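Components:
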Amino acid sequence: MSSTTFPARVEALRRRKSLVVGVVIIGVLVVLGAIGPFLLADPSERVADPFLSPSASHWFGTDSYGRDVFSRCVNAIWLDLAIGVSVAVLAMVIGSAIGVVAGYLGGIVDDVIMRAVDILMAFPGFVLAMILLVSLGESLPKLAIALAIAQVAPFVRLVRSKVLSERELDYVAAARVSGARWPRVAFRHLLPNSIRPAAVQLTLVCGYSILNVAGLAYLGVGIHPPTAEWGVMVAEGAANMLTGQWWTAFFPGLMIAVTVMALHFIGDDLGGDRQ
Amino acid sequence: MTRLAVENLRVEVPGRATILDDVSFDIAPGEIVGLVGESGSGKSMTSLAVMGILPRGVVQTAGRILVDGTDVTSVARRSVAHRFAMIFQNPRDSLNPLMRVGDQVARMVSLHQGKERRAARAAAVDLLEQVRIVEPAQAARKYPHQLSGGMCQRVMIAMALACRPQLLLADEPTTALDVTVQAQILDLVVALTEEIQCSVLLVTHDLGVVAETCDRVNVLNQGRLVETGETHDVLSNPTHEYTRYLLDSARELEVGP
Amino acid sequence: MLRYVLRRLLISAVTVIGLVLVTFLVVRVLPGDSAAARLGPEASQADIETLRTQLGLDDPLPRQLLDYSTGLLHGDMGPAVSTGRPVSDELLDRLPATIELAVAGLVIALLLGFPLGLLAAARPGRPSDALARLFAVLGSSMAPIWLGLLLIFGLYSTWQLFPGPVGRLPIGTPPPPEVTGLYVVDSLLAGDFALAGQSMQFLFLPALTLGLGASAAVLKMVRSAVLQTADSGFVRTARAYGVPGREVLLRDQLRNAMLQVLTAIGLVFGFLLGGNIIVERLFNWPGMGRVAYDALGSNDLGLLQGYALIIGTLYILLNLVVDLVYGLIDPRVRLGGSSS
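Structure:
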C-alpha cells in the first residue's frame, strides 16, 4: 500500500466512479447531519406560517404545523443512518454467525438451519418485520431487532456458501491438524475470510431498512410523529400531496432516495461491478 | 501456398499483461500442425485469436492473421467462420444443454450450407453417422447431458464438418476424455480431415498426441514461440531447453512414478 | 422427474408446517400480550383476564398449538377480535383484489425489466448498460410510498391522466358479476368492455407503483443471468461457428438464463404480494393488505397472523410452481439420468 503513489491512487479511484459518488454523498450527509442542528431552526417548533412553499428563507418550505421542512430533513439524517447501519450490522452479525455454524458443522445442524432460513424467506421481509414489531411491542431498539431478523436469512445463505467453499482450503485443514477445536477454527479463521460477500449485502440491507422504516411509519408502526424522521415526514405529508403542498412529503422522500441510492452505488462497487 | 499464416501476433490484456508476443507460424492445405506448451503458455489464446473470439478484455494489439493470403483481422469475422471450425477441451460444456444435439448440428448445416429446416435435419443425421455414432437418428434426439464426453466430442466434430471447413482448430480435443476414447477421437479427426483436405491446428500439452498425428510442431513458452519444425526433428533432436524439459516431463509420465 | 416433483412437494409441505409454527410462536410466545394489546392501556386487569380466557390464551402452549393447527386443517383461523368475523373470511374475500394488483404489478415489472436487462447484457459496459443500471438503482432507491405519491401527484392531481386513489372502480359503480374476483377479467367475461377499461385505469397507478420497484429487481436478475452465460462454453461455440450475435443472445444465452430468471420471478412476485400493504392503503385498494393495515390499527394480532400465514403460503406455492416449470423446461431435470 505504502508503495502506491498518490497519482496512481487517484487514477484507481477515477475508475471506481460509483464508489466515489456513493461515499461522497454519504459523507456530505454525515457532515450536514452533524453541523446542521446547530445552525438551523428547531425542527419541532413552529417557525413560520404553515404550508409556505419552498423559498430562500425556507428551502424545503414549511409543513402543516409551520415547521421548517429542511431543518427537519437535516435533523433526521443521523437518526435514519443510525437505524440503517445498526440494522445492517445486527443482521450481519447474527446471520454470519449462524451461517458459519451451518456451513462448518454440516449434517443435521445444517439441514435444520437451512430449513429455518427457507421459512424465514417465505415471508416478504417487510411483512415479517411488521409482525415481529407488533408482537415485540414498539420501541427504537425493538424496531431495529425486528428489521434485522427480517434480513438475517440472506446473510446466513451467503456466509454458509462461502464457508462451504473455503473449508476445503489448506489453512482450515492446517488449523484442524494443529489441534484447534471447531469453534476456534470456525470463528478465528473462516469468518474473516467469508465476510467479503456479506459486506455487499450490508450496504443493501442498510438501504432496505431505511425504506422499510418509511413503509412502517406510513402504516403507523415503528417511529411515530412528531419525531423528525424521513419516513414519518413522508407519511405525515402524504395527505398534503393531494391538496397541492407537495413539498412536505417530496423532500424527505428525496432524502431517502438519495441516501439509498448512494448505498447502492457503494454496494455495486464492493460487489466487483465496476464500470 | 499457405492456408493460414499468423504473423507477429501480439495479444494483451491492456495495461495488465502480455499473453502472446511476436508469434508467427503457418499451415499448408491438408497439413496437421501442432501447437504445444504447458497450461498458461498462451496456446489456447492463439487459437481463439485466429478464430476471432478472444474473451472480453483481451485484445490483439499487433500482427496479422492471413487466410489464403487475405488479412482477416480487418474483415468481418463471420466470413472466416465459414471456412474455419473449432472443437474444444470440454465437449459437453461446449454444447447448448437445452437443445437436442441433432438440432445443434442442423443449425450449423443451415447456417453454413443454406439448407432449409428439414433438409438440414436429415443432413445432421448423416453427419452424425459420418462421425461414427451408431444409430445416429436416435442420438440426434438426445440432449448433451444424456451423452458421454466422447459422444459429445463426436457431435462437435459433426458440427465442424457441417461448416465444410478448410481449417479445423482443435483445442485439447482429447484431454478431458477417457484414455480409450482419446485414440478413437484422434483417429476420427485425422481420417475425416484428410478426406476433405482440411488443415488442422492441434493445440495440446501432450507430446505423445503430437508425435502420432502432427506433420509439424510449434512449441510455445510464456507467450513466445521457442521452437518450430518437422515433428520428428523437434522431438528427436530438440534445440531449445524448454522443449527438452517438456520431453523429459512427458517421459517421466510414461515411466510412471 | 417424478422423484423431483415428489421432493419439491415434500419440501413445500415441510416449509408450510414451519410457517404455521413460526407465525404461531411469534404471535403467542413473544412478550406482547394480544389481549392487553387489543383492549388498550385503559383496560382493567380483570377485563384482560376475561378476554385471555375467552381467546384460550391461558391454556398450555402445546394445547393452544394443537387447537390452532386442527382449526387450520378445517380452514378455520378463529375469529377476528376486531370485527367478529372469521379471520379466513376477512382475508380470503379480499384475496382476488390483492392478486389482481400483484399480477398487474408483475406484468409491468416484466415488461420494463426484461427488455432493459437484456439490453444491458447485450453490450456490457456500454452506455446502454450504464443507463439501464442507473434505472435499476433509481427504481430500488425510492420508497414505495413516495413513488406512489409522486405518481398520484403527477398523473392524477396535475395532469388528470388517471383516476385518483379511491379503490378499484369509481365510487358508486357496481362491480362486474363475480366469477374470478378479478374485476378486469370478470368484466371481460361479462362482455362489458367499458367496465374492463375503467378497471384497468384504476388498476394502473397502484400497479405501476409496485411494478416500477420490482422492475429494478427483474432488470438486475436478467442482466446478471444473461451475462453469466456469456462466459459459458456453448456461447463460445456459437460465436466460433459464426452464429449471428442476436441469435446467440436470444437462443443460447437467454434460453439458458431463463432458468435463473424464472426463480427470480418467483422472488419478485413474493415481494409484490408483501409490498402491497402500503400501496393498498395509499390507493384505498380493498385487498388483504388493507385488512392487515386495519388489523394493525386495532391491534388484532390474530388477523395479522392469518395475513402473514396466507402471504407466506402463497409465496411457497408460487415457488413450488416455479420449481415445477423449471423442471419442465430443463431437460436435465425432465429426463434425468445424467451420464458422467
